[in-house]
Design a protein that fits this description.
It contains one helix and 27 strands. The chain is mainly beta. The protein folds into two domains: about 1-10 and about 160-280, Jelly Rolls, CATH 2.60.120; about 20-160 and about 280-315, Sandwich (Jelly Rolls). The strands form six sheets. It has a seven-stranded antiparallel beta sheet, with no helix packed on it. A hairpin with a 2-residue loop joins strand 14 (about 180-185) and strand 15 (about 185).
């Protein structure tokens, strides 16, 4: 093993360990069955801990949903969520009055800032076939100076997220989806006005990589001091600097080194996270991420007092009609339809 390039190899669990400026990443991969009339699973829920269903031995989970899988209304403060939906759909609603449905390659970037409630439900829109859902939710920290900014919600639609295709000297190809940052000359859309990722000097990168069997890919060098990690979530094995990484393992990479990834005999899928550390104290309690315990106490008191603007929806598990397509309605009334 070349420890100067590859280090900290570990298996991936339900929650993935990340480096500053990220807080963690969760990989949801649920093989939901056909849907019923309520957009929930057309299957028995007997034996499940409804409202708290995280049993990893099952093919799919209800999470905190009672009828529809997902996460009913809950608050956040002090950080950002980046939700990358590879397959399936998510219905969003929040305390600012925003709502929408997104999926199949779309990314939602939400800056919780001073405080926001939102719901993330997973509607099973197909009654005649299964409803697989695969997504990442990545938590990206905010620096102290930005923890009280006005909440912001932005959609990065799959049609607008750039991809770069690279072919190696053997004709094998890799495709890089650039959700944040820059890969070679391919620049991602800006996520929002107050994100740590908006300042390009922070070198935040969120890249999805798909490699053909036996393909080789060179990662571009980063800036000094940034943290870079690779999460190998689907395939057989990859090799980096003579170090073999098995499926569903992660590793930290030296971003200042020339790095070549060599794929094995199966198609490989990787997530790469990188960024300049914020280098501030992090205190997390449930849905709040602040710099100290006093900030956490204040977050709870503010939420109890204001409910972060209240909840303008008839219930905490808002789902759109089955026939509704991908769309977003923002707090200012602006609407996007895909």
């Amino acid at each position: 093993m070349n420890n100067s390039i590859v280090s900290n190899i570990k298996p991936l669990g339900f929650t993935w360990v990340t480096n500053d400026p990220f807080l963690f990443c969760v990989h949801h991969n649920d093989q939901y069955p056909k849907g019923n009339d309520q957009l929930g699973p057309n299957a028995s829920l007997n034996g499940r801990s409804i409202g708290q269903d995280f049993a990893q031995e099952n093919d799919w989970r209800m999470y905190h949903g009672q009828t529809v899988p997902g996460f009913p209304a809950h608050p956040h403060r002090g950080f950002e969520t980046v939700t990358v939906v590879l397959e399936g759909f998510v219905d969003h609603s929040d305390s600012n009055g925003s709502t929408g449905r997104y999926g199949n390659g779309d990314v939602q970037w939400m800056t919780a800032g001073s405080g926001l409630q939102h719901a993330e439900m997973f509607p099973l829109v197909y009654k005649d076939k299964p409803n697989p859902l695969e997504l990442f939710q990545i938590w990206l920290n905010l620096p102290k100076a930005k923890k009280q900014v006005t909440p912001y919600y932005n959609m990065l639609w799959s049609e607008d997220i750039p991809k770069e295709k690279i072919t190696d000297d053997q004709g094998k190809s890799s495709e890089i989806t650039v959700i944040a940052g820059v890969f070679n000359d391919t620049q991602a859309p800006d996520p929002g006005p107050d994100s740590w990722a908006t300042d390009h000097e922070n070198y935040v990168g969120i890249w999805l990589i798909k490699m053909e069997a036996n393909a080789k890919l060179n990662l571009p060098k980063g800036a000094e001091g940034i943290k870079r990690s690779v999460y190998f979530y689907k395939g057989s094995e990859i090799t980096i600097a003579e170090t073999t990484l098995k499926k569903y393992h992660s590793a930290d990479l030296d971003a200042m080194q020339d790095i070549e990834i060599i794929n094995g005999d199966d198609e490989a899928f990787l997530l790469i996270l990188q960024g300049k550390p914020i280098n501030e104290p992090v205190v997390q309690h449930g849905p709040f991420v602040m710099n100290d315990e006093a900030g956490i106490r204040q977050a709870f008191m503010d939420y109890q007092k204001t409910q972060f603007g209240g909840w303008p929806w008839p219930n905490g598990e808002v789902v759109q009609p089955r026939e509704k397509g991908r769309f977003a309605i923002y707090a200012d009334g602006r609407e996007e339809v895909k």
